[in-house]
Amino acid sequence: MTQAQLAQGISPLLAVRDVSVVFGGIVALNGVSFDMHKGQILGLIGPNGAGKTTLFNCLSRLYQPSSGDILMDGASILTRPPHRIAEIGIGRTFQNVALFPNLSVMDNVRVGTHARTSSDIISDSLRLAWIRRSESSINKKVHEILAYLDLEDVAHTTVSGLPFGTQKRVELARALAADPKILLLDEPAGGLNHEEVHVLGDLIRRIRDERGMTVLLVEHHMGLVMSIADHVVALNFGKKLAEGTPAQVQVNPDVITAYLGSKDQ
Ligand SMILES: Nc1ncnc2c1ncn2[C@@H]1O[C@H](COP(=O)(O)OP(=O)(O)OP(=O)(O)O)[C@@H](O)[C@H]1O
């Protein structure tokens, strides 16, 4: 999304407003604010301990901010319990993959669709008409996502037997199956080789371009962030250090200083 489009006054899909998180005496986040617009890929960067994971956990409702607010389509998400985030349109993946290892790829993706559907044991056991209808639409959805992410060949394979890169794709499929408005990706490049990171970058961009997805990624892999993000927010010591296009953030003197000493970034 271009700055010109953003300047048209479109209200943000997600607004982080003055969010602070304090753990005991440690201020993990200190008054962080930024907006995310529909269709944007936003990269959240910062050196170790900057507060990225803390903010990610606030967005996915695992942590409750000490102060501030997070609004989605203008309404606070902080009043919603963590297990309802899929219903409000937030999907996520995990740094170390959190799938059901003994289930097939297809069943793991099917779990994602249930995050947005409702049924109960009585309706299920009576196999009421609306349950059958919803089962058939779930199957259709699962097959569509598997085909989209090129996972059809392994649809019936148990997840634990798959390479890590494929497992990460399955996680992405599971998150997409819930039809999120925003996809939160926690270090998606972690544990992937150079070629896999390249493929992942193309995939994230495709998901945005073809499915209109809005993506927030927390990532240490600067090459990936700078090549796919439209907008970058840099944190350091719990505060927002800079934000802007990748090109702007890359040359920001405060960002350069924050990363000095960690040459592996
Ligand atoms: N559960 C917790 N209890 C106490 N302190 C915490 C907790 N989680 C994070 N912190 C502290 O909050 C600060 C921010 O940590 P956070 O994990 O959010 O940073 P990060 O940018 O994700 O770092 P990394 O890149 O190393 O994962 C750090 O000082 C960390 O030690």
Sum up the structure in keywords.
265 residues, alpha/beta, six-stranded mixed β-sheet, four-stranded antiparallel β-sheet, 10 helices, 10 strands, 22% strand, globular, binds adenosine-5'-triphosphate
Please give a structural write-up:
The protein is α/β, with parallel strands linked by helices and 265 residues long. 37% of the residues lie in helices and 22% in strands. It is built from ten helices and ten strands. The protein has helices spanning 3-6, 52-59, 105-114, 121-126, 129-148, 164-177, 194-211, 222-228, 246-250, 253-259, and strands at 14-23, 26-36, 41-45, 67-72, 75-76, 90-92, 182-186, 214-218, 231-236, 239-244. The protein has a six-stranded mixed β-sheet with strand order 6-7-8-3-9-10, sandwiched between helices. It has a four-stranded antiparallel β-sheet with strand order 2-1-4-5, covered by helices on one side. Helix 7 (194-211) links the parallel strand 7 (182-186) and strand 8. Helix 3 (105-114) runs parallel beside helix 6 (164-177). Bound molecules: adenosine-5'-triphosphate. Residues 23, 26, 28, 46, 48-54 line the site of adenosine-5'-triphosphate.
Brief digest:
With 265 residues, the protein is an alpha/beta fold.
Mind sketching the topology for me?
Blueprint: H1 3-6, E1 14-23, E2 26-36, E3 41-45, H2 52-59, E4 67-72, E5 75-76, E6 90-92, H3 105-114, H4 121-126, H5 129-148, H6 164-177, E7 182-186, H7 194-211, E8 214-218, H8 222-228, E9 231-236, E10 239-244, H9 246-250, H10 253-259
Parallel strand pairs: 3-8, 3-9, 6-7, 7-8
Antiparallel strand pairs: 1-2, 1-4, 4-5, 9-10
Bound molecules: adenosine-5'-triphosphate.
